[in-house]
Protein: FAD/FMN-containing dehydrogenase
Organism: Kribbella rubisoli
Amino acid sequence: MELIGADHPQYDVLRRLALPQYRAIRPAAIARCADPSDVAEALTYARAHALPVALRGGGHCFAGRSSTTGLLLDLSALNSVSVADGQAAIGAGARLADVYRGLHEHRLTIPAGCGPTVGIAGLTLGGGLGLLGRRYGLTCDRLVGATVVLADGRVVECSDEQEPDLFWALRGAGGGQFGVVTSLVFAAVPSPTATRFTLTYPRDRAAAVIAAWQSWAPDAPDHLTASLAVTADEVRVFGAAVGDADFGELASLDPAVELRDGLSWPELKRSFSDEDVQDDRVVYSKSEFFGSPLPCDTIAQLLAAGCELGFTPMGGAYNRVPADATAFAHRGERFLLEHASPDRTAVRRSWSIAHPHASGRLYPNFPDPYLTDLIAYHGGNYERLLAIKQAYDPDHIFGGLR
Ligand SMILES: Cc1cc2nc3c(=O)[nH]c(=O)nc-3n(C[C@H](O)[C@H](O)[C@H](O)COP(=O)(O)OP(=O)(O)OC[C@H]3O[C@@H](n4cnc5c(N)ncnc54)[C@H](O)[C@@H]3O)c2cc1C
């Protein structure tokens, strides 16, 4: 383990790898970990110096849980990607761009998100929504094993056969709660060729587009994932199809249509987000799941409230897994709605308009720092998760469930 203090030249670089709103937080020290024994050593150090710990993969936690004034465990050196027998072994510090590139060399991939610098561990431990998800499920649904350093420094392998309760909890309860994952093994899927599509509409057609989208996208064929974004200027329906792209009623609302055929999976992912572009804007957001469509008058009020709105479709393979089969409890939802703005009050107002129609459930990977009702993240899985937390982290070395 390399211990990096505030006087080390790398200290500020590593500390700042978080979302902009958490970049000012200064850890007492940063432990750079390259293998499970480094992680165990870091946990011993934290205990000896009575320091709280935070674990960091890609540093994208919306609630700042991978930042601390105590000991920050930086896992970015654990970034290997290898393939054997159709299974992908991925170091917990790898970022999604590394994962897609590494697996594509074997003509494989996994269903996972679009942000190229998002960490594979944080994404997987909280679920993992992405453009192949309606076909193959959450990222965590493809997880078949993991190596974990427990709070007491023991290193365990977990799977359906070994430490099955821990393995269940790792699939969708949210990162940083049960132990430090050092590597993940996934059942990979073929890396497809896809069509990227964007349907752009003028902003004044937003109400009609949202109404058409919400009754179509969650029930679209599994090979097609269409998200919806409403900004101050326009409305966009965008996503990918691994096969025919048919847009139902949305096509009749007269969009400008852009199609890019024949993209390899890494090309498609890059087309959505460039890993070299760093966005330093502070944007606040709040989100919830919805199990039924929003009424027309609510849509009108939301549009008047002025936040950016992002709709992500659920359904398909996400919802074919029983809610208690993994820790991810949200298996009957139709979509996720995110409200975003640099103005936190505006976000709260927009969220309050939609909230009466929501299912009251939250995606663990979009945590809300102000939410105290943890059942919203875990639904009927909450009690089992509490028992697993008590068994694996009785002294609350890691954060989360109480
Ligand atoms: C730009 C952007 C794009 C996104 N795109 C998507 C998307 O397409 N699909 C989607 O589902 N989500 C998406 N998200 C949300 C994303 O899944 C979560 O923010 C996720 O938690 C990020 O993981 P991370 O490793 O990057 O972040 P971190 O902040 O490093 O970690 C997130 C949480 O996991 C814990 N953790 C990290 N590593 C480990 C480990 N090895 N062992 C145990 N716990 C660990 C941390 O302590 C923290 O609590 C996006 C977020 C952003 C900011």
